[in-house]
Write a structure and sequence with these properties.
149 residues; 35% strand
Length: 149
């Protein structure tokens, strides 16, 4: 759940209706009051982004881009279960909410060679995410949080 339109300058985490809420300022300056448990993916910058760019996925149909460093953002996000850290194919970290991962499988074969690349394809929320970790490593991380496939 997201609450939009807080007065400018209001940036504080709090508790609304029993849910931990984190306030996230999007790159257009809008402050979004986001239920921490609604966050399914947090990632840092992509190529061409400023180094302090981070993205939050889950609470709305599109990513929320912020100009907050990913480590600072993660230090403020406290979902009921910790986000699991994996590695994107570009070598950068990505944090996924284990409870919304619905599929873990091998990555698709290469179109030219037919070889199956290393890593896993994880379906989290409504999107697919390729990670460098093996299917076994992803399943182990999930099992360590009490999530069994």
């Amino acid at each position: 759940m997201i609450y939009e339109g807080a007065p400018a300058g209001v940036v504080a985490a709090g508790n609304r209706a029993g849910a931990t809420v984190v306030d996230i300022r999007s790159i257009d300056g809008t402050i979004l009051h986001v239920a921490a448990d609604a966050i399914s993916i947090v990632t840092g910058p992509y190529d061409g982004d400023p180094p302090s760019r981070s993205y939050v996925t889950g609470p709305r149909s599109t990513d929320i881009a912020t100009d907050e460093d990913v480590d600072a953002l993660l230090a403020r996000v406290h979902p009921a279960r910790a986000l699991l850290q994996f590695t994107r194919l570009d070598g950068r970290p990505i944090w996924l909410k284990g409870a919304v991962i619905s599929i873990v499988t091998t990555r698709s074969p290469d179109a030219d060679t037919g070889a199956v690349p290393a890593g896993a394809l994880v379906h989290v929320g409504s999107r697919d995410q390729d990670v460098q970790e093996s299917v076994n490593d992803v399943l182990t991380a999930l099992a360590n949080q009490g999530i069994n496939f």
